[in-house]
Sequence to fold (108 residues):
Amino acid sequence: MDHDQDRSFPTGNVVEIPESASWIRRFIRGHSRVKDFHVRRLRHTFACRYLERGGRIETLQRILGHSSVRQTEQYAKLRPEIVAAEMARIDGTAAGTAPAFRTSEARK
Fold:
């Protein structure tokens, strides 16, 4: 693959990776315990964390250079602990617990 085509993000939206993806992959595999590393996972992790922190999917679409939101929706799968924390935030409870209601209060 040509160095100019070996980017994790499109030109103009995000800083380009200065080295080729294959060089980075070889470096990580050679200098760490991570043997199943792929540069695209960095892109995926960034996109997921961006959405988990409240980023808008339309903005992420532009950052990633996708032509449609449908392409970007693959990153909208939230980790279970993020879903639980968001539910707790909305319910006003501790993460992973259901709100406590008394029977008499629920009937009012």
Summary: Helices lie at 21-31, 40-52, 57-64, 69-72, 80-91, 103-107.
